Amino acid sequence: MKPPPFTYHAPRDLDEALDLLAEVDGKVLAGGQSLIPLLNMRLAAPAHVVDVNRLPGLSGIEAGPEGVTVGALARQAEVARAGVHPLLGQALRLVAHPVIRNRGTVVGSLVHADPAAELPAVLAVLGGSVRLARRAPGGTGVRQVAADAFFAGPLESAAEPGELAVSAFFPALPPRSGSAFEEVARRHGDYALLAGVCAVVTLDEDLHVAAARVACVGVGPVPVVADVSEVCGRRPAATVPWEAVTEAVRRAVEPEDDIHASAAYRLHLVGVLAERALREAAARAAAPP
Amino acid sequence: MEHEITLVVNGAARRARVPGRRLLSDCLRHDLGLTGTHVGCEHGVCGCCTVLLDGEPVRSCLTLAVTVDGREITTVEGLAGPDGLSPVQRAFEECHALQCGFCTPGFLCTVTALLRDNPAPAEDEVLDGISGNLCRCTGYQNIVKAVHRAADLLAEERAPSAGEPPRDGEAS
Amino acid sequence: MSTRLFGEPVRRREDRRLLTGRGRYVDDLGPDALAAAFVRSPHARARIRDIDVSAALDVEGLVAVYTWEDLPERVGRPLPLLIPHPALTHGRTAYPLARDVVRHVGEPVVMVVAADRYLAEDACALIHVDYEPLKPVVGLEEAAHGARLVHDDVPGNVGARLLQEVPGRDGRSAREAIEEAPHTLAFRLDIERSASMPLEGRGVHARWDGTDLRVHSSTQTSTSVRMAVAAALGLPLPHVEVIAPDVGGGFGVKIVHPWPEEILVPWAAMTLGREVKWTEDRREHFVSSAHERAQVQYVRVGFDDDGRVLGLDVTILHDHGAYTPYGIIVPIITSTQLLGPYKIGAYRVEFSSIYTNTVQVTPYRGAGRPQGVFCMERTMDKIARHLGKDRTEVRRANFIEPDEFPYDQGMIFQDGRPLVYDSGDYPRMLAMLKELIGWDAFERRPGRGIGVGCYVEGTGVGPYEGGHVQVTSDGRVHVSTGLTSQGQGHETVFAQIAASELGVPIERISVVTGDTRRFGYAVGTFASRAAVMSGNAIALACRKVRAKALRIAADALEADPADLEITDGTVHVVGTPSASIPLATVAVLANPLRYAFDEEAARATQFAGASAPDRPPVAEGDEPGLEGRDYYSPIRSTFAAGMHAAIVETDPLTAEVRVVRYAVIHDCGRLVNPMIVEGQIHGGVAQGVGGALYERMVYDGDGQLLNASFMDFLMPYATEIPRIETGHLETPSPLNPLGVKGAGEAGVIPVSAVIASAVEDAEGFPVDRMPISPSELFDLRRRHATG
Q1: What is the CATH number of domain C163-182+186-193+290-462+635-785?
Q2: Do B67 and A96 touch (CB under 8 A)?
Q3: Is the pTM higher than 0.90?
Q4: Which residue in A has a C-alpha nearest to residue B126's C-alpha?
Q5: CA-CA distance, C354 to C718, in Å (whole number)?
Q6: Are C293 and C192 in contact (CB under 8 A)?
Q7: Average pLDDT over chain B, rounded to whole?
Q8: Interface of A with C in 156-185 (CB under 8 A)
Q9: Interface predicted TM-score (ipTM)
Q10: Residue B98: pLDDT above 80?
Q11: Are strands C292-303 and C309-321 parallel, antiparallel or unpaired?
Q12: Does A242 touch chain C (CB under 8 A)?
């Protein structure tokens, strides 16, 4: 289990990195916590590896009223410590183990687009986006890809060859909103091998549910977002018809059998977790910390 | 193509010529002869290869040596002080927190950083803190015990030298 | 410091080096050695049409590529079948490199040697093997139908079939007893595949200097690897040394020998005249070492109104994987140890050991016992449920009573000897367990259950182990034994035994294990046998040395040996401390050739009387030096026992199972070091919890192992293991001088049975297949809800 040979590049700035990515068929190395296992198992054999760890200006974690922009080199542990977004914090606690989070990046996890990973679901439920940069004639081309377009399939993001994901934007929760992340992993810190659900609930001035969205993990090729605002109805969380809500979520997902669980169990579980996450999010919306 | 790199390992600058694909774990073990860092899975799950990179625990099997050129690395060989075993090492010995010893270097590095950041962790914080390290021998019970014990030893060590009041209450 | 260390929680002497990164595991050796890697079969069953290595030859740093055809006749022979048995009518072993066919994913086909492992893997990737894939045989029951064959010459895929019958006291057979019993039950049980999975994989390093071969292997038996290597390479035994250095866990898998790599790496080293090393990676360990567990059991039981078993009839399908290098030890142990602490009226057990196109099955900690205990304990629970009785009451009704030892179960055990239990006190043990877990006060409610499991474990099987003890003229004591260590703390425990026997401070004692340069005859570390076998052998060797020391000291002190004792390394006359002589001096006196190399030798001259001119300097029957060697070879095994209980909570919605409490009462006879025994139990229970709730090897219909990584083979972390509460009962074994029984495997044995019992209690329906995942518990709930 050793990586296959590749040509290693360590560009010193973004221009150099984009030039390289335009020239060679290269794989981007940031935290490496997803890429290097694939290399060690020789499931990936890129001819070139472009190590972006030395690029300046990509480690930022910038919180503004609209939301948080996380740079490509911001480590998961740093983002969690920054405490800039409640749902990111809730999700990051579930991402692998502390040691992995010291190296792994938030943006890298998004680009890896594992359907059982937590962070893509967070971006999806918030309606966030990823900024992709590339070498364009006469300069740098940048495009902003919304979450629903970014996750294209299992382990497949919208980032194209030659593109570098430079940051991700996680919109702030609206006022009177709460969020929660519930999952059942087999072991603490594992991927959501069974299922996971994150939820955002916004209440109106009467503390009735104004909007409720979930994103489900591990039950489809990409994070499955379900807007259940209508099913919840404009009513206090306590009187939400939870059975109908969980049914609506279950209708949205397409779980499959695998070695860890049956599709039927996952379908059941995703409803259970959705209700837990939504109730918790609603409670947090009603009583902000 | 090979790359000339310098790693500051356990306080000493060490140079090596490595290909781009050389894993940090292999560089430490085979290029620098520091075989105390062990390799148990090479896909980042077992934690045996955990070392401190600028003080933060990371998987050396999921890190290319070239990526960390110029940075500081602490391995198990560098944990003991001039006066002998570190408090974490002593606690592992006292509490019988190792059997075959293969996972131990990874635990020691992880716990050293854990207790630096959180000198008096609660039980669930200890469990979370070591939850990325597999041990097949001990059943973890004595490792958990050793983490608490190490916290006590560190508190004892800090108390007189820093001239602060004892922090037993926090450490227990 | 006291020299009475037997029974004390002495801190481990191994720890210092292991805590500072100075342990020496195989991959830490031979920094300049060439690296070996293997092309392994991607198919579960295929014919090899052609192997094209040409593309690999361009890899820079490549040194050699070997296929089966390149091996000399002796090296290329099928690997030995270690433990033949008359019932194993169709034993089959692999070639070191596949010859024409492959029978499981992971079977080695081509060996590559290169400057380093990266380059060796590059070369492997460029070697093209042309396979003709065949539909594989996967799944026990499918294999047992025998429609397709793993080995063309093994009809029905049956490697072995063994029937053992123990009639009741009234002479009735088990089947007759069941027919006539007031109550009968019939059911089927399943246990999935798991594996030892030590964190250090296997590894071999070999160095040949033109005359002598030195091999380091991460093995549980260096002496046997040595003999196997010498035989395969045609070398005289004295020219081969095998050393097990620090070994990063074994748990059974490393008792298999010789592995193909243990033959091929030394052969390559000799052929190339270079040091060669192979370090198994995790993927290789999953697909090319060995697995265990994997049985289907069909059970019929007849019992009376008190729950006493009148007849038990068990038919076992045992999945042997593709080969049988370790014989049929595992199913033999299952079928004999199944009886546990119970008196069963009449017993019939028949197993079929079945070939499948999967990784071979050899012992993993517990070695067939967890399956047997699962069967018997599920049976006890079902009887209790049927009769509406407390589960512990039914067990109590079937126990062997303390005054019935030695108790003959009427069967033949794994060592080929009668299954006769030596000692124990099962009723007392159960009472202790019930108190520890609070059995009688337990408040049952839906989603919360309590479970229990009992076992008896034959430990310390023969045929022998030896110990050598030498006192040198500096007063140090050098102990060696041939069996190996994989983390059990043998250096500490054996030093404790030697310190207690010899009266020497433990600091002056050093212990070497698993090094054939120091001790050539040994069996190995498995079957919870180290403390019993080598412990007693070392004690016996120490007693020889002690007797000799007292004899020499008595001469020097002009005293009667019977009046002498040794404390703190000094021989002295009881009651007259001034009349004494250091053991170091005795060691000098023990050698008639007494050059004054060191101070001790110079000082010893004061004691040296003139030798009698009419007698040889070394008397007949005597030897120079203060050393002794002895062997311990028991008539039969000792029988340790244990009982575990657990409280679990099951989530009503997610079907997750949480172990809230876990209690163990354990009897391994006299404890040499309670701290180490406790550690062994903790580790065993943790592996048991893994096997009950998390770990399994999942093969698909094509014979592909779907979870061959730590991401998907779910070994528990600290967050998954409950706190383990332990209590000890000590019923010393009458069979050996130290009164010890083994402890190594104990913790793991009943855990699946205990957790199944507790989950069943929480859920109210039978749990007959382990491990159990949340998804499976959910499916069971659905099935039982819809009736």
Answers
A1: 3.30.365.10
A2: no
A3: yes
A4: A98
A5: 36
A6: yes
A7: 93
A8: 184
A9: 0.96
A10: yes
A11: antiparallel
A12: no
